[in-house]
Amino acid sequence: MSNILEVRGLEASYGDLTVLRGIDFDIADGGVTTLLGANGAGKTTTLRAICGMIRRKGEITFEGKRIDRMSTENIVRLGVAQVPEGRGTFTTLTVEENLQLGAMTRPNDKSIHEDIEKSFHFFPRLKERRTQQAGTLSGGEQQMLAIARALMLRPKLMLLDEPSFGLAPLITKQIFEILADVKREAGVSMLIVEQNASLALGIADHAYLIETGSIVMSGEAKAIREDESVRASYLGY
Amino acid sequence: MATSEENMTGGPAIPRAAAASAKKSGSSLGTIVLAVLVIGAVILPFASKNFFIFQMTQVMVYAIAILGLNLLTGINGQFSLGHGAFYAVGAYTAAILMEMQGVPYGWTIPIAGVLCFVAGFLFGLPALRLEGVYLALATFALAVATPQLLKLSPFEHWTGGVQGIVIIKPDAPFGLDAVLNPDQWLYFFTLVIGLFLYWLARNIVGSRTGRALMAIRDNPIAARSMGVNTAVYKATAFGISAMFTGVAGCLGAIVIQFVAPDSFTFALSVALLVGLVIGGVGWLPGALLGALFIVFIPNVAEDISKGLAGAFYGFFLIAVIYLAPQGAGGLIRSGLARVKRML
Amino acid sequence: MDLFIQQVVSGFATGGIYACMALSVVMIYQAIHHLNFAQGEMAMFSTYIAWQLLAWGLPYWAVFPLVIAISFVGGFAVERIVFKPIENAPVLSHIVIFIALFAIFNSFAGFIWDFTIKAVPSPFGDGPLYPGAPIGTHQAGMIGVTMVVLVMLWAFFRFTRMGLAMRAAAANPDSARLVGVKVSMMTALGWGMASAIGAVAGVLIAPVVFLEPNMMLSILLYGFAGAVLGGLTSPAGAVLGGFLVGIIENLAGTYIPVIGGELKLPIALFLIVAVLLIKPAGLLGRRTVQRV
């Protein structure tokens, strides 16, 4: 299987504080990759660096094309959708407007409307709230909206930052089920950043472990899940 | 004041240790510079013409006003486009007390200070709830409305309406009038008050209150959770700031010998803000540099081309924001740091 | 009672001026979450350009769109040249730049066209709307134009993708980038539009107040008052607020003896502070509802 995204020697820092110290990883085309690690290990920074939201050094290749010097908007236009930390909801706009924005880079035609209906099929809760201000949604609903908005791009690669963050276990489970559906039905490649390792390893094909800005381990998700010593020393469950 | 590197122009916070050492060497150097300046300032009125003495007195007056604004903006992170209003309150206090009540001019200064503190505190109370743009808006409105507030008819009996009030220039007391002409006397009078206020400002910055104000500037939520009553402190900061500017207004009125509503337009508030930015936000001595700029540069600009003083101001401001967002203070500090590195 | 009604109607007429200005204030607020203190001066400068073009003999209805276009490009350019380099600077830097622009436009207008008062003709004539009407044809025309601009803006933001993208860029720039919106372009467009609306305001106001470099300072203050009263997030609120400010100003001038006919700026100050304290979102502004 070929790789949709290849990252080599990625470095990033906030001011004097170095967060990523030259990391390498690949995301397989059509697969789900997960990046695990504790708080502050550099997971969110990795996603922000891929999308050009912070200054970064190193090589990032998306579908054979270097994107490490491109602006966020242009990277998005290539088909990279991010579901950011804190969900990035446009709180003052309606749910439907949020979804329309997801399709901003696509030509304006009927298919957008069809995709909105499709999102409502995936997330019936959003349909009930389509004309509400998105800021009034619950945390779980906002997470659903963020995923639906990212799907509106018809992305080739989706980057998800802690989709379980701050959500009740039941809602989290629901969201991961939907992500599994998306993977199966739409064939979107995904990179999921998570603290909840057992959930992420359940859906992923391949996993990387990041610790204070460096990749310390990588392997088949299945193998990592079953490795007692990794579990005890890194994942803590 | 070495810690002002991390002021609201958003520069990265410098490490504590570096700040502390900079403070140490900076303050001994600062003492020398201050001593040289004071000696120069004492000699100056005996070596120049009356008009220049008058101009330098004005520089000191504006420096005090800018010092007040700097306390608000640099230390507490609030800003004001309306400090011309407090300057006006101070000026009118002097004029009304001296010319209508016969109060000796020396007494008008503490009275103006107290009045402006109260006015600033009261304006600051609602202003608390206003942050960023809203505060700018409220103070902008205050600045634009000031001349008309001064013209309102119920106050006309006191303010003299559009005509304003003429003040008689005081002579030097204690037989000093044999040595000093009134211009020289006012110059020294202003100098002494200015030095006192500078000392006061430095002490405020170093005090518990000062640290609380800076904590509020840097992280309002954390400050609140540590038990700092942000509301009272912010209003107090506004009051203190207004007090300085009001005392400047009071001195300004005595020096210029005249107050009228149209001396206190939006342009005055703008000039004070310009002085603050040029001198360097958060760096107290910058007030003097800022004041020199606003007193002398418009004249130079007018000489180059009539009517273009405003444009000159504007371009200069933009250049400062682009090239030296920390103002003259920032330039001097980075220059010193470079010299130190070379040694 | 007659006096009251007459004052309300004529307040409504001056309110048209403020409504126009408030609308352009809200436009820029939508784009950059800032109040542009140089907005009035930019509008004044646009008006001078219109006056100049008229003086060169161009017909009014050619000058009007031309000035709007020039102002749009001008506002766009000011953003690109002056603001873009410091877009991430703190609020104080932005305010200083506004003040700088204020000084520059004011000073250049005086330098180029001198400080004498100039008359700008009205396209609507200067008689009363009907014999004995308290409102002139120009005022009526001005109110009409303001309404048309408002409806056009509303439609633009509500129904076009570009409008939606601009709203998104203003609401949450980071997220807007993540859906591919070119945020900094949206900001520049916002400046252009605000400047164009300011030009409309300036050209319509000039026949009433006469053209001179300082004509806009107090009008801008009323415009701010109108925008705040109506709600900074709401173009319709801004127009409503503008009219209300006009009416309140007139009634206060008539019934509060202290204020009199001339000295009405303190009312704007009072209104701004009062609204910000009592109802910061304004009458029609949207309160941001947010759940964490």
Give an overview in words:
The complex is a heterotrimer of chains A (237), B (343) and C (292). With 237 residues, chain A is an alpha/beta fold. Chain A has one domain (3-85, 153-235): 3-Layer(aba) Sandwich (Rossmann fold), CATH 3.40.50. Chain A is built from 10 helices and 10 strands. Chain A has helices at 43-50, 72-77, 95-102, 110-122, 124-128, 139-152, 169-186, 197-203, 221-226, 228-235, and strands at 3-14, 17-28, 32-36, 56-62, 65-66, 80-83, 157-161, 189-194, 206-211, 214-220. In chain A, a hairpin with a 2-residue loop joins strand 9 and strand 10 (214-220). In chain A, helix 3 (95-102) packs parallel to helix 6 and helix 4 (110-122) runs antiparallel to helix 6 (139-152). Chain A starts with a strand and ends with a helix. By secondary structure, chain B is mainly α. Chain B has a single domain (48-342), classed as ABC transporter involved in vitamin B12 uptake, BtuC. Chain B is built from 14 helices and 2 strands. A two-stranded antiparallel ribbon of chain B has the order 1-2. Mean pLDDT of chain B is 76; it is low at 1-25. Chain C is mainly alpha-helical and 292 residues long. Helices cover 73% and strands 0% of the residues of chain C. Chain C starts with a helix and ends in a 14-residue tail after the last helix. Chains in contact: A-C, B-C. At the B-C interface, helix 5, helix 11 and helix 13 of B face helix 4, helix 9 and helix 11 of C. Chain C: Keywords: Amino-acid transport, Cell membrane, Membrane, Transmembrane, Transmembrane helix, Transport. Chain C: This is Amino acid/amide ABC transporter membrane protein 1, HAAT family.
